[in-house]
Input
Amino acid sequence: MLQSFMVNGILVPATRKEIIMNNICLEKLTWDTVDDVLKLKVSKEQKEFVAPNRDSIIDAYFALTEESIPVFTFGIYLGKKPVGFLMIGYDVPWAEQYYGLPRGYYYIWRFMIDKRYQGNGYGKEALKLAIDFIKTSPSGKAEYCWLSYEPENEVARNLYLSFGFEEKKELWKEDQEIPAVYKL
Ligand SMILES: CC(C)(COP(=O)(O)OP(=O)(O)OC[C@H]1O[C@@H](n2cnc3c(N)ncnc32)[C@H](O)[C@@H]1OP(=O)(O)O)[C@@H](O)C(=O)NCCC(=O)NCCS
Output
């Protein structure tokens, strides 16, 4: 069914972008939704860019229980359909260890859209929602959000830079991911 909106009493058909914007949402992972996310995969060529979602959820468990790192895990949904996974941390110790970044940063730790759904604008919309969520200061105030990506991951790099993330090449060490920082 074609979606539409009422504008000043007139029914206006939604553009494709509006449909995406109104239907992409982040849902906190629960017992009921974790299986949705475990089924999502990236392509063979992208496996170097992001850990499998199962590993990410294990990482989240140990970060929380062993190190008391605040961590938020979300399914990315298009309406009721799971299309991706997002994991956000706060004040992770390796920001300082690896990159010399000060503590108290939010961290977009894992982010993926399933290979079947990429290239439709879902990643862009989910990243916007991720930043909106971080701006609510769920674990406390922070001045910055950071993330990192493999040097070969041009799609992710371009997406992050288009949002205003600033690449910190000066902090990058070979064999590591490139860090980038966003001023909240
Ligand atoms: C990075 C990722 C999350 C982007 O999600 P997505 O839903 O495919 O992205 P979108 O459709 O919202 O597109 C975002 C931008 O990337 C561009 N893009 C998407 N896929 C592309 C591709 N295969 N080649 C070139 N450009 C591409 C889009 O054109 C868009 O650019 P625009 O704003 O200039 O139009 C997704 O590609 C992914 O999951 N990759 C594998 C895992 C990964 O690398 N995660 C990030 C780890 S740091």
About this structure: The mean pLDDT is 91. The chain has six helices and nine strands. The two ends are 38 Å apart (CA to CA). The CA atoms of residues 167 and 180 lie 4 Å apart.
